[in-house]
Amino acid sequence: MSETLSKALVLTMLQHAEDFPWRMQDIGLMSLRLDDRRECRLHVWDPSYWVGEPPIHDHPYDFTSTIIAGEMTNTRYEEDTEGDKYMRFRYSPGAENGRRSDAVRLSSRATIFHEGKHYHQLAHELHASWQQPGTVTAICCQWVETPELTVCVRDEGSWRSGQGREATREEIKGFTAKALEWF
Known about the structure:
Blueprint: H1 7-15, E1 23-25, E2 29-33, E3 40-45, E4 56-57, E5 61-69, E6 71-91, E7 100-114, E8 118-121, E9 126-131, E10 136-143, E11 149-153, E12 165-166, H2 169-180
């Protein structure tokens, strides 16, 4: 995808962002589907839309993320009896309300990625990411059979749904204004 989704093309898309059906996730993420199979998406990040730390989570797909503009830190987590304590929520895909919780200890390893770099993440790997405001990434997914998804947070009261919704006109303007500062 990186060959076909150049920085110049993304710039044009962002300059006309209000012409596209953007989706919001309340983790500071505005996304645009780039295909009908939901395998490729453009992400624009603004962490000011998230309160607290990003959730540690896994996915129902393996993916490769390419940084088109900006900078981000991807942190991978593993269970570790000496690690920090988190509340772990597990649920079946599409059934967040049926989640169950327990405590888990995790250790982490962070990597910083700049424009033009990419990373690959397997569906079952726990991670969290921190982006500079306006960072733009392209993600390509390979869906896998996932019976259960996981989200880990510092305290039980900080659970938030990962479900998306339609982005408002104001959100589209705000996110793209920050993204255009990287171009």
